[in-house]
Specification:
Largest sheet: none
Helix content: over 70%
Number of helices: 7
CATH superfamily of the largest domain: AhpD-like
Mean pLDDT: 95
CATH topology of the largest domain: AhpD-like
Number of strands: 0
Length: about 130
């Protein structure tokens, strides 16, 4: 493992997904999935999110489209919240969800809006 890339990935992962979520994922790692958590942190977050070729906002928008197309609602919710943290406006997010509906199909759009509204309600309840 490249410690520098892992550390950069850990920083980026916490900035986007929240320290509480990431700390819990790492604390719950066991002998079976610990290497996977390290790989995700080092490669996904250190190599990809850790470089500045695309902005965090651009990466968030890309992830939302891909996750919606793949039907990964749980991950979509995490990255929807992350997109807000990354400064993607609600108007931009609404437009992203419209584009998801057109290019991925109305059912994907319906699911994306459902998850997005759930995340927005959670953030409102938290006073954010």
């Amino acid at each position: 493992m490249d410690q520098e890339r892992y550390d950069a990935g850990l920083k980026a992962r916490k900035e986007v997904l929240g320290a509480e979520y990431v700390d819990k994922a790492l604390a719950n790692a066991d002998d079976f999935n610990r290497e996977f958590q390290e790989m995700v942190t080092e490669y996904c977050w250190g190599t990809i999110w850790g470089n500045d070729r695309l902005s965090k906002q651009q990466r968030s928008i890309l992830n939302l489209g891909m996750l919606a197309a793949l039907g990964r609602s749980h991950e979509f919710g995490l990255h929807f919240k992350g997109a807000i943290k990354n400064g993607v406006s609600l108007d931009e997010l609404k437009e992203v969800l419209h584009q998801i509906a057109v290019y991925c199909g109305i059912p994907a759009g319906v699911e994306s809006f459902r998850v997005a509204r759930q995340i927005l309600a959670e953030l409102e309840a938290e006073g954010k």
